[in-house]
Amino acid sequence: MASEPTTVTITGGGGQIGYALMFRIAAGEMLGPDRPVRLRLLEIPQGMRAAEGAALELQDCAFPLLIDVDVTDDALTAFNGARIAMLVGARPRTAGMERGDLLAANAGIFGPQGKAIGAVADEDVRVVVVGNPANTNALIAAASAAPEVPVHRFSALTRLDHNRAVGQLAETLQVGAGDIDGVTIWGNHSATQFPDVSHATLRQTQGSWGGMPVLEALADRLGGREAATAWLDDVFIPRVAKRGAEIIEVRGSSSVASAANAAIDHVRDEQLGTPGRSWTSAAVVSRGEYGVPEGIVCSFPVRSGGIGLLGDGYEVVEGLDLDARAQGRLAASVEELVAERDAVRELGVL
Predict the structure, then answer these.
(1) What is the pLDDT of residue 209?
(2) Residue 12 to residues 16, 50, 78, 325, 327: CA-CA distances in angstroms?
(3) Domain tally, the chain
(4) Taking 60 as the threshold, does the pLDDT of residue 1 lie above it?
(5) 266 is catalytic
(6) N or C: which end of the chain has fewer CB within 10 A?
(7) What is the pLDDT of residue 350?
(8) Residue 204: its pLDDT value, please?
(9) Contact 12/131 with Cβ under 8 angstroms?
């Protein structure tokens, strides 16, 4: 077991996603069975009692990897020495709230948190934003932490969308989720995102479909290429993009366990690497890849060699061919991200 614990800070530690995260992190599911962790739970004053109750439960679980748990409503205390920061707590959109109001409210959360990260976090801190609108909240936090923390250390969660896309394909093709490789989420974590299967393949274990492109398998399953394209456009893409609303309608509350699971997947793959897969999806700060304007936080296909001797976290997989359909969908999502960036600039945040 590593001797030095990794400090993981979770904001919104008293909320449902934070609650779903912390026990799995303490059990070693995110960073592995030999890496001890120290948890810091940041909450607003009204949420402190819930976070304190969760800390008591963590103590009662007696996780061997969990060194200690701190609960605080002070950002400087919460992010002090943090190696991993998971920004979960955000201002949700309520009835009658305009998107500009939502961005302004979240700027008041993620701006100060970014400043605190820049001031006191570990010099190699990695930050993933889960709270929506995740891409632009990550942009705000990264800008506020600069220049102390390089912008490439910040990312936003589109792994939930990625996992949802894989799950839908697995159900339709009646294969295991682990048998599908090469799915990509492009753009914003919103209804404009583009779940792309044009480079996805099935693993060799899938009988007559082994090694086949997913598009060909869909055509075989659904009765031809035209039927497969219609299913992708009319069923698959809208369902992945609106899955959160579907879950709220069915369950009566938002997706919690799947969001927490995706956040754990995101951090684990960045920290430990993505060997054995072509890539996964994450929203990272663009450097102009695929014509996306530099500086916005956009979802791309990414891979990681881990953090340490083998790599420096997520990097964009370049050189994939995008047809006119894919380029158009990506452009629409990027247009939304640019509009959000410009709205935040008007607030004087960037």
Answers:
(1) 67
(2) 8, 10, 11, 39, 36
(3) 2
(4) no
(5) no
(6) N
(7) 79
(8) 65
(9) yes
